[in-house]
Amino acid sequence: MRLLSALVVVATLLGASVSAPAQDAAVDLELVLAVDVSGSVDSFEARLQRQGYIDALTDPRFLQAVRNGRHGRIAVTYLEWGGWGLFRHVVDWRVISDEASARAFVGSLGRIDPSFRGTSISGAIGLSLQLFALNPHRGDRKVIDISGDGPNNDGLSVVYYRDLAVSRGITINGLPILADAGNVVPDLDVYYEECVIGGAGAFVIAAQNFESFAEAVLRKLILEIADARPSAPTVVKAQFLQPGRPGGGAAGAPQAKAPRYFPYCDIPNNGRRMIFPAANDL
Question: How far apart are CA 220 and CA 56, in angstroms?
Fold first, then answer.
């Protein structure tokens, strides 16, 4: 009951922190950028993450992809998260359609705030669902971008929240950062593939380290705007993975190998796999 009450409080706070823009706009994509700033992300790495999004969102290739859409614009919001109930809604929903609107968006990403304790991917997805409910811009598709450097170790079941988002027609894509993840899971990209992503066309692009994060972000954003998936794997700067279990890709897609993490997707820092209680079990 304590966890359920915390979720209600978080939802209330989030609702209070978001003010609706004055005018609605039809967009090609509603995109939540949900960025991990847990304790494992130091200030230097946090700055690299922020700069990665600044560079990607103002890159001419990204802006061209936006212009190529049916409406020629997308709605984006930027959320930083850590442990259960710990978050910052850094940039409210804004429409990006050209260089000026992109630079207005990233203008709010200069300041680096302290990190949070814990890594609650489930909480990040839950908060993202609240943001979609508060977005006045209606898009053809809805996508949550989860970037992070560790597994779900706090809050409720990540699988429950992933499946809840998918049931609402939302796609979750993943950008795991592999630099230090081996301390808890040796292959965070596989963990994201099995436990985090889901929905139509979902995919993972794994940054090898924080220095390669900007390139991975740019590639992922372009694919999301184009409603596409990686056509081939690459390990030069970012590793592309296709989802390997139902819910993350085409219906009936074959399972290449036995799951390594699913269904034990909630992994405390001691590495012991467990299943946290789902919301409907409380």
Answer: 10
Domain that holds residue 210: 2-16+27-281
CATH number at residue 260: 3.40.50.410
Q: Residue 232 gets which letter from DSSP? A: S
> Is position 57 within any domain?
yes
Distance CA 267, CA 121 (A): 11
Please give the structure tokens belonging to residue 12: 């209330």
Task: Please count the structural domains in the chain.
Answer: 1
Nearest to 245 by CA among 205, 206, 281, 192: 192
Report CA dihedral (58, 226, 34, 74) to the nearest 10 degrees.
Answer: 60
CB 114 within 8 A of CB 3: no
3-state secondary structure at position 229: coil
pLDDT digits 0-9 by tens, 112-160: 676 777 899 999 999 999 999 999 999 999 999 999 989 999 999 999 9
Decide if 237 contacts 212 (C-beta within 8 A): yes
Question: What mean pLDDT value characterizes the chain?
Answer: 81
266 - beta bridge partners?
Answer: 152, 274
Low-confidence ranges of the chain (pLDDT < 50): 1-22, 233-240, 242-255, 282
